[in-house]
Amino acid sequence: MLNVTDVTEFILLGLTSRREWQVLFFITFLLVYIITVAGNISMIMLIKVSPQLGSPMYFFLSHLSLVDVWFSSSVTPKMLENLLSETKTISYAGCLVQCFFFIALVHVEIFILAVMAFDRYGNMAIGNPLLYGSKMSRVVCIRLISFPYVYGFLTSLAATLWTHGLYFCGKIEINHFYCADPPLIKMAYAGTFVKEYSMIILAGINFTYCLTVVIISYLFILIAILRMHSADGRRNAFSTCGSHLTAVVIFYGTLIFMYLRRPTEESVEQGKTVAVFYTTVIPMLNPMIYSLRNKDVKEAMSKVISRTCLTK
Question: Which domain of life is it from (predicted)?
């Protein structure tokens, strides 16, 4: 019987064992990854060079884009490598590193989405963009954005140490395309009690807290919008908040489906399909959601393109 120190690598079973599907998935997810990185980096650069996108909302949006690139990069490259590889392995240390960054970035993203909801409420409550800008100074924004990073990485450190406490026996095949907690717990033969219940409790507390902030913020936002006399103002507010609300619903919904259930054969298999969505598709969609439905971003993009064309 092997203990945790004897296990040197895991086999990632991935999305499919059929070779023709693996090639198709490789091409698809490579394109998705390129679009994700290009779209989010473009959003960060656009916010950086556009004075009209200097409000706190876009400061937080630039960090959301940064986390999306980092989040997707913690999973996708290894998945692409294994789609073309015969061995499809990941080292034990590599698995723990992947777990660490994945859990950290999930927590960072859910808290950034909560901070963005609070920011939208603050802007609506004060009503005056100039006054709100003075209240929400760069120092305040930095303090607000620092919490998700610090809390997310500390939470992930604890969760990864609990993962390190799992014991495995023999050849370990993980029914997933990355080192996710549910299939790891399912494959372990000892040390699962603390890991399983800490995962469910931590996920429950963090998701509930962030979701409560989002829901309360949007209830007050809705009240503020309904009090507006201008139809254009209401339309503008719904457009701006709608982008963020779309991102929240998609991201929170998929994560709750994945992590607030006990790991079983059925839940792991279903979770693998859902995981494709939040590790690859959502990071790609976020820049589109925030640009296509946001007047300020579209105007800033047009100005940057115009300046670029005139310079040439």
Answer: Eukaryota
Residue 106 dihedral angles phi and psi, to the nearest 5°: -60, -45
88-91 — which CB contacts under 8 Å span 24+ positions? 88/11, 88/12, 88/13, 88/14, 89/9, 89/10, 89/11, 89/12, 90/9, 90/10, 90/12, 90/179, 91/8, 91/9
CB atoms within 10 A of CB 311: 6
Structure-token pair, residue 200: 């469910």
Buried-exposed string 78-113: b where 16+ CB fall within 10 A, e elsewhere: bbbebbeeeebebebeebbebbbbbbbbbbbbbbbb
Render the burial of 124-152: b for 16+ CB within 10 Å, e for the rest. bebeeeeebeeebeeeebeebbeebbeeb
Nearest CA to 124 out of 228, 37, 199 is that of 228
Q: Model confidence over 188-218: pLDDT tens digits?
A: 877 788 888 888 888 889 888 888 988 888 8
Query: In this structure, what are the phi and psi dihedrals at residue 173, rounded to the nearest 5 degrees?
Result: -110, 115
Least confident of 78-82, 89-93, 308-312: 308-312
